[in-house]
Amino acid sequence: MTDIFGLNGKKALVVGGSAGIGEQTVLRLAKCGCDVAIGGRSRDLADAVGRQVVSMGRQAFTVMGDVTDPESTARMVAEADCFFGGIDVLVSIIGASHWSPYCETTTKFWDDEQDLNLRHFFVLSREVAKVMVKRKTGGVMTCVTSIDGIQGAPNHSAYGAAKAGLIHLVKSTATELAQHGIRVNGVGPGWIVTPRVHATENSINIIRESGVPMARMGQADEVADAILFMSSDLSSYVTGQNLMVDGGWSAASLLFRA
């Protein structure tokens, strides 16, 4: 069978790859022939995903660390690079949303949101880019953004600003690193079922009232499929883009939502 994804034998680092969207991404990359380093804070969860990768005949390696700590992040990248002898694919699933009324948002809350949702990818992608540039192999890096990075909402100021910054970081790094054969893209989920977000009757009603054209929540594997596309040769001329996986939410007009 033709390797249309161009991923056979590639070395991937998936940070946040032990559950949900991250786990599904790891398994898709492995199915397409990648050896995968799984980064996270729970060794048990990461090792469990790694065993699934090994069962597919690929190598798996667990790297532990805290992405809000630049030194820890650098160690994770160095360990993956040392184990595999290079990194061809980086995927960051890291990010979490916390809400706060604007007038009650503290500077610490603001800084924490920027660290987790924006600065982490700056540090992570910078360290991986150094590896790719030094080894002259090129590569591709993909991060998970959010619909909140392109649309405003009450209580979302800190998180939304971080995700908007992440989308711009994707554009800027993509234009600068293209000369080294490195592509950088984002994938922006809308309402997605994950281990932390469940499809309850209340959430489904919210989806309908919010005006999501497909009138349902997305699944983790649907986001992972988009990440796989961005990580593969199928998107070989795509860089600096933010692909929304949101059931048409960001495309719908206010009239549609009324």
Short overview:
This protein has helices at 20-31, 43-55, 70-84, 107-135, 157-177, 201-210, 220-231, 254-257, and strands spanning 11-15, 35-40, 60-64, 89-92, 139-144, 182-189, 192-193, 218-219, 242-245. With 258 residues, the chain is of the alpha/beta class. It is globular, with a radius of gyration of 18 Å.
Description:
This protein is an alpha/beta fold and 258 residues long. It has one domain: NAD(P)-binding Rossmann-like Domain (Rossmann fold, 3-Layer(aba) Sandwich), CATH 3.40.50.720. A seven-stranded parallel β-sheet has the order 3-2-1-4-5-6-9, sandwiched between helices. It has a two-stranded parallel sheet with strand order 7-8. Helix 2 links the parallel strand 2 and strand 3. Helix 1 crosses helix 7. The model has no long low-confidence stretch (mean pLDDT 92).
Largest sheet: 7 strands, parallel
- How many helices in DSSP terms? 8
The CATH class label is Alpha Beta
In sequence order, what are the helices and strands, one letter per element?
Answer: EHEHEHEHEHEEHEHEH
* CATH fold node name: Rossmann fold
Instruction: Record the strand order, biggest sheet.
Output: 3-2-1-4-5-6-9
Uncertain stretches: none
Percent of residues in beta strands: 15-25%
The figure for the number of domains is: 1
For the secondary structure, the number of strands is 9
CATH superfamily: NAD(P)-binding Rossmann-like Domain
Radius of gyration: 18 Å
Helix and strand layout, with pairings?
Blueprint: E1 11-15, H1 20-31, E2 35-40, H2 43-55, E3 60-64, H3 70-84, E4 89-92, H4 107-135, E5 139-144, H5 157-177, E6 182-189, E7 192-193, H6 201-210, E8 218-219, H7 220-231, E9 242-245, H8 254-257
Parallel strand pairs: 1-2, 1-4, 2-3, 4-5, 5-6, 6-9, 7-8
Helix pairs in contact: 1-7, 3-4, 4-5
